[in-house]
Design a protein that fits this description.
83% helix, mainly alpha, 8 helices
């Protein structure tokens, strides 16, 4: 009976080893972001509900990124691959300056809307399930974490460049930088 365990013999094959490195490298950015959350949660106070509140704020900010830089980086990779094949590094330099404004055009109003209208919306959504203090923590942490979306957007667009030009190992460096 064969399980879903990796076979060591396959890792002796150069192509399989390179594929494994690419997959681990690409996954490392997501793992690093989860480690960031775990580190942040370890430093949260002992107030009841503080970890839950901080987690909600973190995931709200993650949602803002999920509707801006993540999909934009993903859908523009094929175009970048073609452009890189024609023009080389010049294409990668232009990519960030050309694509980032579109990501920020979605991200900035989303973060601004949260900063301006977020607290009443949180109160409406969580009025029966969280204390006023927990809602205050979600709102405050969400606004503070909203600032981090600027470098995170640039990080994910840079990761798209690394993936498009076949340098997935750069993900390992980007992952380390996020920690």
């Amino acid at each position: 009976r064969r399980g879903a365990r990796p076979q060591r013999a396959r890792l002796r094959d150069r192509r399989q080893r390179e594929l494994a490195i690419v997959l681990v490298s690409a996954a490392s950015l997501a793992v690093a972001l989860q480690l960031d959350l775990a580190i942040a949660l370890a430093s949260v106070s002992n107030d009841p509900g503080a970890i839950t509140a901080y987690s909600y704020a973190y995931f709200l900010v993650g949602l803002a990124l999920a509707i801006s830089s993540f999909p934009l980086g993903l859908v523009t990779i094929p175009e970048l691959v073609e452009d890189y094949a024609r023009r080389g590094r010049e294409a990668t330099r232009e990519y960030i300056t050309r694509i980032a404004p579109y990501a920020f055009a979605v991200l900035a109003p989303t973060i601004a809307a949260f900063a301006i209208c977020g607290k009443p919306v949180l109160e409406l959504v969580f009025e029966d399930s969280l204390s006023d203090h927990a809602i205050d923590v979600i709102y405050g942490a969400g606004v503070a974490l909203g600032v981090s979306t600027v470098p995170q957007t640039l990080l994910f667009l840079t990761a798209s460049v690394a993936l498009a030009i076949g340098r997935a190992r750069v993900f390992l460096v980007l992952s380390f930088v996020t920690l």
